[in-house]
Design brief:
about 240 residues, Jelly Rolls
């Protein structure tokens, strides 16, 4: 791809046709950024909700006391064990993967994990192979898992997985997953120093962002998703 570039001239400076060039590459950055949550856009324009099972479809909602409301994407399970609320990013209007580990993608999320029941939220969020079923074993991906009140960093190939304990999860935190050429880094709040770096069972298939929450013990559980953005390398 080429584009013509013109020289920048001051007032009254003379310009010449030779100062227009058409042999330059368009100046794309090396990293392409995607911002995928906007209160002005319907969730279903970019996110597939078909893996929601029994729970409520994710929906934009104002959350908080009167005069203190904040807009979140709310994922709510309902109060029956096994019910799931889930959203996965779409490719061109349909469920599908949007990036490859070869693109060295990075995903940033801000979540409020609202423990309504007091027994702990059960959730998973990050990069997944789109077709994998939430909360099943050995999903292909690189993601955070919350189980029994603890936060884990998980990498999986689809045949095996590695789950590393990070510690008790915080009710509100910022999360980052960075897939590198030989490992995957997981960050929590401190977005410069990885909480966990994993080299085993690094995914090797195409992936998409996905967020899911499941009910256990017949308790109603909720994730409030505040922000989500991701980046990938452009091809050169």
């Amino acid at each position: 791809m080429t584009s013509r570039h013109k020289a920048i001239k001051g007032t009254l400076d003379t310009g010449h046709a030779t100062e227009w060039n058409d042999d330059h590459q368009a100046d794309f950055t090396l990293e392409i950024e995607e911002y995928d949550l906007s209160t002005g856009v319907a969730i279903t324009s970019e996110w597939d909700l078909a893996q929601t099972s029994g729970g409520s479809n994710p929906v934009w909602s104002l959350v908080g006391a009167a005069g203190q409301e904040h807009a979140f994407v709310v994922l709510n399970t309902g109060a029956t064990t096994g019910q799931i609320s889930s959203m996965r990013h779409m490719l061109s209007g349909a469920a599908g993967n949007v990036t490859s580990p070869l693109d060295l993608p990075a995903l940033n999320m801000a979540l409020w994990l609202e423990d309504i029941s007091g027994v702990g939220v059960e959730a998973e969020f990050g990069f997944f192979a789109s077709a994998t079923v939430p909360f099943t074993a050995n999903q292909a991906g690189a993601y955070f898992r919350i189980n029994g009140g603890d936060l884990y960093a998980v990498t999986g190939t689809g045949a095996a997985e590695t789950a590393t304990l990070i510690g008790a999860y915080s009710e509100y935190a910022n999360y980052r997953i960075k897939i590198n050429s030989t490992n995957v880094e997981f960050f929590v709040d401190d977005l410069e120093t990885a909480a966990v770096t994993q080299t085993l069972t690094r995914p090797a298939v195409a992936l998409t962002p996905k967020v899911s929450v499941i009910s256990v013990g017949n308790y109603d559980e909720t994730i409030n998703l505040d922000a989500l953005a991701w980046s990938r390398l452009r091809k050169q």
